[in-house]
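Attaching the record inline, Q. Sequence:
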Amino acid sequence: MIRVQSLAIQFEEGHLRILNQTLLPHEEKWVEIESVNHMVEAIKSLKVRGAPLIGVAASFALAQSALKKTCREELLKKAQALYEA
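Structure, as predicted:
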């Protein structure tokens, strides 16, 4: 079982959640990330902020995709999309 939990990101058994930073400090709302495209949108809309957290969140989104048995070529495309975000 893979389990990671911090103040802004949670990853457990393939489920990824991020803290929506656009609502801080008035509201704490967690967003379920279901795909790499969803993470790209979260990065572009500033729900995830700061270079270190963006890198970690993108890595977990890619890992989530890999756990779903995504082929290598598709993972490379998804990694490029995250990089460009």
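The mean pLDDT is 94. The chain is about 45% helix and 20% strand.

More tomorrow.
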